[in-house]
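Shipment paperwork, digital attachment
Item: protein structure file
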Amino acid sequence: MARDKNLIVVSADGRAYKADLGATAPTNATTVPAAFQAGDLGWCHEDGLSVDISEDRQNFGAWGNLGPVRTQVTKRTRTFKITALESSPFVMALYDSVPTPTPDGSGAFDYAISDAPDQDLGAWIFDTLNSGRIIRYYAANAEITGRESIVHNSTPMTAYTFTIQAYPDDSSVSLHKFVVQPSLAT
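Attachment content:
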C-alpha cells in the first residue's frame, strides 16, 4: 500500500461516555446507544484521550544461548486516561463514586461521600473525531481505577482526571474498536 496522508488521524475532538454494566453495546462508530447518552462526560481537556497497553513478559532462554530465544506475555492491561472539564452532577458523582444526584429547581444538589465506595463497574465508549475520521473504543466491562487530584484556584480550570481499566469478558475480549476512515471508501 502506498503512503496516504488521508490516513493520518489528528484527534481534534472527542467524546467519552459511561453506562451501566450490561448496557446495549454500540454496533458502529457513529451511533451512541441511548443508555450511554446520560453518561456523557461533556467537554474534556485538550490533552484528549490517552490509551495505554501495558504488558509484562517472561523471557525464556535456551541451553547454550546467552539471550532469550522467546518471550511470553504474562499480563496485559488496557487503560484509558481522560480529563473531564464540566462540573456536572454526573462528572462530580463519577469522581466521588456516588450515584448521580438530581439538582433542585435552583440548580443546587448535594450528596454524601463514603470512605468505602462500591466497585464501580460499567461500560465505556471513547470516541476520537476529526473530519469524518472516527476511532471508537468500546469497553463493555471497565472500572475507574485512578482519580487525580482536583485543584481549585484561579489558574487551571477545575478538572476531573480519570484512569479507566478495561477488563476481559468470558471470551478474553477487553475492548472493541470501530473505525471510520473515509479515504478507504470504495
